[in-house]
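Hi P.,

Sorry for the delay on this. The queue was packed all week, but I finally got your sequence through. Input first:
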Amino acid sequence: MAAGDLLTADGQVEWRGVVLGSDAVLGTTSIEGWKDRAARGGNRDLSGFHGALPARWLAEQRQVVWSFVNTVKGAALAAAIEELEALTQFDEQPVEEELCIRLDGVRAMVHATLVGVALPVGLDYSQAQYVTGAVRWVASSPRKLLLPGKSEPIGLPTEAAGDGLEWPLEWPLDWGTGVTGGQVTVTNAGPAAAWPLLRVTGPAPALRITNLDTGQRLTFDPAWTLPAGQTIEIDTRPGYRTVLFTPSGVSADARLFVRDWFPIPARSSIRIGVDAAAYDPAARLTVLWHDTTQ
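Then the structure:
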């Protein structure tokens, strides 16, 4: 099941495969930070003149706070609190995980880290069984990714066949078969750039992945071959930019020689091409991405 598939109503939050929020025993009272946007930077005051020298302003990381109140009491409430506490444990080696939220009929996701849980215990809690609380996450990238994600698989370009035109010419002319395949067009309908995940399965010697519109390339060691049946995932997101074998997680980063990272621009399409030193029908590139959303 893909991230966000469990969300069926506005105000719901999906975290670690569990739905929190409306129509649950802990109902949503607010979701802060999901619609907010803020930038960091600072203009520098002009000396002796009005105003300031404009600076570059960049989006801050996103902080999301889900606040809730109980909608049941008794044993059902105790079980819900126990589940929430288990669901919000801090890992020994925390990494960003998928945080999915549905609002206004739109399901979207950020990669976030759990950073706080508030569950105050007072007279309301112990005597009236009235429970309020909140869970807080931080997403290093503020970009919200529309669900579900998209994917486009392509194979290596096939080799040209035939010798072209032969003399003397005879009708109908036989031109032979040119190079086919090896490229795909991907579209981002969102208002911000989308950084794709590139999944490649071998065999692929001297692998090259190219933005055919700009010429930007991800070029691997020409002496290295991605073995048959093995898969690497190339994460192009700023701050990540890893090359890992899957599912082992072993790095192949040293094999990537040319690093012209490229996104899918906002409300635009690009053509992505893949090539290798030798053709094999089993080799495949899959482009995975999400449209961005406000």
